Amino acid sequence: MWNRLAIAALSFALAMPALAEDKPYRVSLIGDGFDGTSWHSGVLIELAPGWKTYWRMPGDSGIAPEFTWTPSRPARAEVQFPTPSRHVDEGGEAVGYEGQVIFPVTVTPEKPEGLDLKLDLFFAVCKDVCIPAQAEASISLGTDARDPLGSSRVETARADVPTAGDAVTSAEIVNENGKPVLKLALKERPEDIFIESATSAYFHAPALSEDGHEARLAISSLSDIQKLKGQAISITYIIGGKGLEQTLTLP
């Protein structure tokens, strides 16, 4: 996975084709629903046809979005990630979103007073090439709703955030033909599985057994597989079009 320095190093090489056309993305803050304690807003990224951007685990290449918040009053902003999809092309596997995505944001101030919120977003968008991107957006939040349509869109996006699941009953690292593989036991067949850990390991697309009760994910980008021993992994999976997630500890 790319880090921010690597992206910056590539920016000069990619600048010429990127500047030859309008930016293939637009970023804005929408929604200002207030529940008496917190505001419910969202980061809307709109993409040109064929372009994609990334989830918090971007795949075997790409970069996760970085949200930097500047509120006019002390406040905490928490970002949620809707269920992503996997995109496979010549460049490898990418995990993220096409067309557009709304990241729901819960803004909780120290005191329930109106505030202005500014976002500095560092992210990447890809089509035939990947372009590092930086965007700013802002919104004024008050106790009187000013953007009911935006709030409705945020709530729709919030419903697409994965919820707690229990379909994965066990997880272990096995050796297959000299290569490490994550083996998962499942109660039912998922459409896809995404794995996150505190290591640099990347878990590839799952290979499912015929009955759908077992998944095997090849592991790469980790020189010492023992670093996964005893590690907690976050498992996000899709069943019936719905995102679910749970955490298990590897033996």
Write a structural description.
- With 251 residues, this protein is mostly beta strands.
- The protein has two domains: 4-158, Immunoglobulin-like (Sandwich); 163-249, Immunoglobulin-like, CATH 2.60.40.
- Helices cover 11% and strands 54% of the residues.
- The strands form four sheets. Strands 3, 4, 6, 7, 9 and 10 form a six-stranded antiparallel beta sheet that branches. Strands 12, 13, 15, 16 and 17 form a five-stranded antiparallel beta sheet that branches. The chain has a four-stranded antiparallel beta sheet with strand order 1-2-8-5.
- Mean pLDDT is 91; it is low at 1-20.
> Helix tally?
2
**How many strand units?**
19
Distance between the termini: 25 Å
Query: What best-fitting shape do the alpha-carbon axes yield?
Result: globular
- Looking at this structure, what is the CATH superfamily of the largest domain? Thiol:disulfide interchange protein DsbD, N-terminal domain
- Rg, rounded, reads 20 Å
User: From the helix content, strand content and strand pairing, which structural class follows?
Assistant: mainly beta
* CATH class categorisation of the largest domain: Mainly Beta
What order do the SSEs take from the amino end to the carboxyl end, as H and E? HEEEEEEEEEEHEEEEEEEEE
Q: Fill in the CATH topology of the largest domain.
A: Immunoglobulin-like
Task: Let me know the average pLDDT.
Answer: 91
* CATH architecture verdict of the largest domain: Sandwich
> How much strand?
over 45%
Which regions have little confidence, pLDDT < 50, spanning 5+ residues? 1-20
Which percent bin holds the helix content? Answer: 10-25%
Number of domains: 2
Largest sheet report: 6 strands, antiparallel
